[in-house]
């Protein structure tokens, strides 16, 4: 893989182990981006997650979040992805963060085969993108990343190798997007050691790639409007049937779908009662489609 350059944007990643962080000092020390731990497994939430997101945003640091994957099966991976998405809702969802959500997959305590590792990874990544509307990136150590096959190469790579020498090639990747090059860095505003990272580009390029603002959407076609009206009808039918409560993580999207065009009369439909429909609503809401005219 490629080596770093002096013009690469610099960043950090943190969790509860860094304690209270003075994010303004972090920014003043030249760090332009950060990933903060949000969750792990099916229930754990990092207690500093929300405070770190708020602090980083206020200081002008581009912020993203990561989930430490414990799953040993595809079904467990999907549950972890939903948990991660629900934790992200505490800060406005994945769309509220400048950087993509991250799958941190770096060990194999269950002794899975390479094929199973790839199945677990793909299940998590696919589910997370379905429920958040954002394409995740993959974090892993250079050695563990050798387990990933070419099916995962379309995902951007955040690689860990603690060395002055660049990471070595893996079956899925020949270059890195982000390189975590030490876990013993020192940064103003943080008491103690912290992971240091570089992005494969300048800060301006980082902002261009991940932190674009809205406003460039195409207007909806008549066909798209008709499809959304049909979806609105399904939501109304689902709510009327009371056959399945709206999950907490989907309520905002459901409300937006119902309000999308309140003057349009609802047609008779057979609404599908499933989490798949809720996930679809959340994805479209995160993309801002319910706000189009």
UniProtKB/TrEMBL annotation:
SMART domains: Glyco_25 (SM00641)
Family that this chain belongs to: Belongs to the glycosyl hydrolase 25 family.
Organism: Paenibacillus enshidis
A Pfam family the protein falls into: Glyco_hydro_25
Keyword Transport applies: no
Stored InterPro entries: GH, Glyco_hydro_25, Glyco_hydro_fam25_subgr
Record key words, sorted: Glycosidase, Hydrolase
Gene Ontology terms, MF aspect: hydrolase activity
Identification of the protein by name: Glycoside hydrolase family 25 protein
